[in-house]
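Notes from the 1:1 (GR / supervisor)

We went over the backlog. Supervisor wanted to see one worked example end to end before approving the batch request, so GR pasted a single chain during the call. The sequence is below; no edits were made to it. Supervisor asked that the structure be written out right there so they could see what the output format looks like.
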Amino acid sequence: MKKAIMILQSFLVIVLFSSFNNQKEETCTLTIEVKELRNSTGTVLFALYNREDAFPDEHYKKYYKKLTGMIVNGTSSVMF
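Structure output shown during the call:
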């Protein structure tokens, strides 16, 4: 009986919290492209920061999102 009550309580908590999450989040994309790179192969590390005090960040510890793009014919691009 206690197990059934705990399961019911857990279910009610999940339903309660999920009902507050009905706001639709607006999404956007950001495409970054770099050209005329010295190398024709390899990768480029792209880091996106969402705080002014986090940049510059030489060791990539304060980034918001980080992606790696392949270099093809001296060009690389990513889409955040």
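Supervisor's comment: The chain has a mean pLDDT of 79.
Batch request approved.
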